[in-house]
Specification:
The chain has one domain: Rossmann fold. The chain is about 35% helix and about 15% strand. It is built from 11 helices and 8 strands. It has helices spanning about 50, 80-95, 105-115, 135-140, 145-150, 150-155, 160-180, 190-200, 205-215, 280-285, 285-295; strands at about 5-10, 20-25, 30-35, 55-60, 100-105, 120-130, 240-245, 270-275. The two termini are about 25 Å apart.
Length: about 300
């Protein structure tokens, strides 16, 4: 059974940020937050959200800096600790103490940070092609394949990249969304693409500031790569039951990012989607939704 999506809702947070969100299901049911990445928005979950409305209050916010949510000025506003604070406050504003979290790409980065910094807020955690920060730091410091795959991050951090991305009616961003999905499922219909363009026209700086504010990026001098990528691993321990769904044909994230997750996330289950790319949510929506429903409906360890 699927339910309809209720769009254009807003939550005013105590920190002054206003988050736009869409939802499916009724408040009072268990809360699940679905967090999008770059260059997407809350609509990334349009095929997933209705599946959860019958049993959950499924909420997909636009992260700060995106679409209809607040777009604060300055790089510091886009450090993950501030994004996480938005999510903690959103859970409270919606009337909950805890939530299950599902995150993709940058939404996954925020989810990892939320789960490690505020374990008391987390029921269960699911990540879709979103590397654990310690694994990403490790691979950026020593794996030439990940260093090469992350070259686009350096480009996205550059000044005035907004103009390059907006040129020719956002041709580069359109190519990005079209370039990775495998043949056989054209998820990016003209109507859906137009909604993305409307989102991008509302501004790209906030979304790009996530890259500019992050310490995780290829070092200019590879011989000094590790210097910029040292993280306190204790800050990123996640004890909550965790599911990682991974499209193995992701051109931006190498499979080695899955190695050794258990040292930071002891209660983790990893499932590999052999034919999927970074856009696993769009390529395999039915399978993703089914696996998430099974995981969120469990009690106890992730492997149960």
């Amino acid at each position: 059974m699927t339910t309809s999506i209720s769009p254009a809702q807003f939550a005013k947070l105590a920190n002054g940020i206003r988050l736009h969100f869409c939802s499916a299901g009724e408040p009072g049911r268990p809360l699940v937050l679905f967090l999008h990445g770059f260059p997407e928005y809350s609509g990334a979950w349009d095929e997933i959200l209705p599946v959860f409305g019958s049993d959950y209050f499924a909420v997909a916010p636009d992260l700060r800096g995106y679409n209809l949510s607040s777009q604060p000025q300055g790089l510091d506003a886009y450090r993950l600790r501030n994004v996480v604070e938005d999510l903690v406050q959103l859970i409270a504003v919606l009337g909950y103490e805890r939530a299950a979290i599902v995150g993709h790409d940058w939404g996954g980065s925020a989810a990892w940070r939320l789960a490690s910094a505020h374990p008391e807020r987390i029921e269960r955690l699911a990540l879709l092609n979103a590397p654990h920060p310690n694994a990403l730091a490790r691979e950026l410091s020593r794996n030439p394949a990940q260093q090469a795959a992350s070259r686009h991050i350096t480009w996205l951090r550059s000044p005035d990249i907004e103009d390059a991305l907006a040129a020719d009616d956002f041709a580069r961003l359109k190519y990005w969304l079209r370039s990775m999905p495998r043949p056989g499922r054209d998820w990016l219909t003209p109507e859906r693409l137009q909604r993305y363009v409307e989102v991008w026209r509302r501004g790209l700086t906030g979304a790009l500031n996530y890259y500019r504010a992050s310490p995780l990026h290829p070092a200019p001098d590879s011989s000094e790569a590790t210097a910029a990528l040292r993280l306190n691993t204790e800050h990123f321990f996640v004890g909550a039951p965790t599911l990682v769904l991974w499209g193995m044909r992701d051109e931006s994230l190498v499979p080695e990012l899955l190695d050794g997750l258990e040292q930071w996330v002891p209660n983790v289950v990893v499932e590999r989607f052999a034919a999927a790319t970074h856009w696993i949510v769009h390529e395999e929506p039915g399978r993703v939704a089914e696996r998430l429903r099974l995981f969120l409906g469990q009690s106890g360890d992730a492997s149960n």
